[in-house]
């Protein structure tokens, strides 16, 4: 009888062991994804193009432009070309810049004519038969510089400030003020170049950190404004950018 009971108890024990082995182990919860860190990719200042080439920098950190080193009549002529661009393109104040530009041509007719003759003498002495083409290349180079679309808003405000000062002084004082006026008119462009260089630096850091090799494009419905039409007598832009080979001293 004892042997019979021992054999009778074995099957339930075997079944219990079998059921324990068939039990499904509970899976660990999946690892959550890393949190999304919001990032903002740097964009060019003033809605500028993402692939602009900046001018070279001088030893003092400023950017080299067609106005570099201009003095005397050369500086005055560059001021006139800059204000010519403003008269054609600065429409946010209506006709204020254009009207003041025409006033400048009347008030300062004598020093402006003298500056024109001095520039022609420089180019005739350097280029002889080709002096007209060389002079027109200078006009187009300087004109295109001051017509850079991303800088127009700040440039127009500066132009209005400068031309107001110019029209309030005597013609005898104009030549001495020309280098200062030229530096003021160029200041928005120097500031833009510095801001664009900072954008390129921040963009490089952003790409290095987030591993994004992308090209920044502006909105489809936002295009940079076209530069104003060139003044009469100048060849149509663009011409290759090059610094004019002129004397940096007063003619």
From TrEMBL:
Q: Where is this region: Disordered?
A: 217-251
Task: Give start-end positions of Pro residues composition bias.
Answer: 225-241
The entry's keywords? Signal
Q: Indicate the secretion signal residues.
A: 1-20
Q: What is this protein called?
A: DUF4142 domain-containing protein
Q: Which organism is it from?
A: Sphingobium fontiphilum
């Amino acid at each position: 009888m004892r042997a019979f009971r021992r054999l009778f108890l074995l099957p339930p024990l075997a079944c219990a062991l079998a059921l324990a082995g068939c039990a499904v182990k509970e899976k660990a919860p999946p690892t959550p994804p890393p949190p999304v860190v919001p990032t903002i990719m740097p964009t060019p200042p003033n809605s500028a193009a993402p692939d602009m080439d900046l001018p070279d920098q001088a030893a003092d950190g400023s950017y080299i432009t067609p106005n570099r080193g201009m003095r005397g009549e050369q500086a005055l002529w560059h001021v006139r070309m800059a204000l010519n661009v403003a008269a054609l393109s600065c429409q946010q104040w209506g006709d204020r810049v254009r009207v003041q530009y025409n006033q400048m041509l009347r008030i300062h007719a004598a020093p402006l004519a003298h500056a024109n003759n001095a520039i022609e003498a420089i180019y005739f002495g350097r280029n002889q038969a080709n002096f007209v083409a060389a002079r027109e290349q200078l006009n187009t180079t300087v004109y295109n510089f001051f017509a850079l679309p991303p800088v127009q808003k700040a440039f127009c405000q500066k132009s209005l400030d400068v031309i107001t000062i110019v029209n309030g002084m005597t013609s005898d004082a104009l030549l001495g003020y020309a280098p200062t006026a030229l530096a003021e008119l160029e200041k928005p462009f120097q500031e833009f170049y510095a801001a664009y260089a900072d954008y390129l630096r921040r963009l490089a850091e952003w790409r290095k950190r987030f591993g994004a090799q992308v090209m920044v494009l502006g909105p489809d419905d936002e295009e940079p404004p076209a530069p104003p039409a060139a003044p009469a007598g100048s060849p149509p832009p663009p011409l290759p950018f090059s610094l004019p080979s002129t004397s940096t001293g007063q003619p």
